[in-house]
Design goal:
By secondary structure, this protein is mainly β. Helices cover 12% and strands 42% of the residues. It has one domain (3-100).
Length: 102
């Protein structure tokens, strides 16, 4: 499944191997618990559910989400494309994402 890791520590977005097993999401984003936000139909963002416990100065990223507007997430994120067409590539991700270091 086409997937990208959002790494606010190195300020990069890189493709990752993700086989669709939901249990591997926590490993990829280095989180104990995670939550999902829909970017668009079939395109989801997974983030650390406990990020609110992080220091506000920890590396973060902003992403424009439907219904939530520009939203700040601390820690890693994983964008997963569940659509057969895999139309969501790195260029569209960068157009709705920016990095922040607190």
């Amino acid at each position: 499944m086409k997937s990208w890791l959002i790494d606010p520590y190195d300020r990069v977005i890189k493709p990752v191997d993700y086989d669709g097993n939901w249990q591997k999401i926590a490993i990829i984003i280095k989180a104990k618990y995670f939550e999902m936000h829909e970017i668009s139909k079939g395109e989801d963002l997974y983030v650390d559910e406990e990020a609110m416990l992080f220091k506000q100065t920890d590396p973060a990223f902003y992403i424009v989400l439907p219904k939530l507007r520009k939203t700040r997430f601390i820690g890693y994120g994983l964008v997963v494309n569940n659509r057969i067409t895999n139309r969501f590539g790195i260029s569209p991700i960068t157009s709705i994402l920016s990095f922040d270091h607190g």
